[in-house]
Amino acid sequence: MRTCPLVDCVGLSGSAATGGYIPADDVDLDLFVRDDTKYLTYAVALALGFLVSLRAWKSGRLRKVICINVIWTRTQTQPFARDDEALAFELLHCQPVFGERHFHQVISSNPWILRLFPQLDREAMTDHRFPEPNALGRIVAWIGRHPTMLTISDRLGRFASQATYSFVHWMKRKDTQAMERLAFLRRVKFPYEFFQD
Predict the structure, then answer these.
(1) pLDDT grade, residue 176 (50/70/90)?
(2) Residue in 92, 111, 87, 119 with CA at minimum distance from that of residue 191
(3) Omega of the bond prior to 79 within 30 degrees of 0, cis?
(4) What is the pLDDT of residues 26-54, one digit of tens each?
């Protein structure tokens, strides 16, 4: 948040949100971001995640500690392109850490989710205050206020994050289980998986 103030909401997902987290797991995050900032945000998140992995480096093995599960832009959630049980289930297990009000606005503007999971119809608690941006965050915020710079930065972010994404999966190309998992995620997250837009 301090480094990328273009984010409306950060939500825990996966085992960290459902209570099944063990130290060997990575921490899954769902992000809700301003329009036209998806790939700039993703590139910043990948860089920050890499720094976290370096800090946690043990036994000569680098492992992923933070996983960006999905990034939704405002337009993608107003309304969602999908209205199925799988997406509603993902949102049911998303636990907002910052931006709880935004999360509940997303839920409220998609009433089909509440028909499937009425327990999501609850008042947002008081949001944690978003932290003040650090030096890099101030630069990112400045970019966000200048449409031409934002367009260029988001395209560069897409290029950098897609190159990283492709390289990581290329490294796992001989791991049949990893490739099957990737194909599964692309299918179940469509059209919200990265680079499907």
Answers:
(1) very high
(2) 87
(3) yes
(4) 899 999 999 999 999 999 999 999 988 88
Q: Rounded to the nearest 5°, which phi and psi values hold at 87? A: -65, -45
Q: Tell me what pLDDT residue 127 has.
A: 64
Positive or negative torsion for Cα 37, 43, 48, 52:
positive
164 alpha carbon, distance to own chain's centre: 16
DSSP secondary structure of 90-150? HHHT-EEEE-HHHHHHHHHT-HHHHHH-GGG--PPPPPPPPPPP-HHHHHHHHHHT-HHHH
Please report which helix (H) or strand (E) contains residue 7, including its range: strand 7-13
* Distance, CA of 151 to CA of 111 (rounded, Å): 32
pLDDT digits (tens, 9 = 90+) for 103-153: 999 999 999 999 999 999 876 666 677 788 999 999 999 999 999 999 999
Residue with token string 């790939």 = 39
Angle formed by the axes of helices 135-144 and 38-55, nearest 10° = 170
Domain-wise residue ranges, the chain:
7-189
Residue 61 exposed, middle or buried by CB count within 10 Å (0-12, 13-18, 19+): exposed
Q: Are strands 7-13 and 95-98 parallel, antiparallel or unpaired?
A: antiparallel
Angle at 51 between CA 50 and CA 57, to 5 degrees: 85
Q: Are 157 and 41 in contact (CB under 8 A)?
A: yes
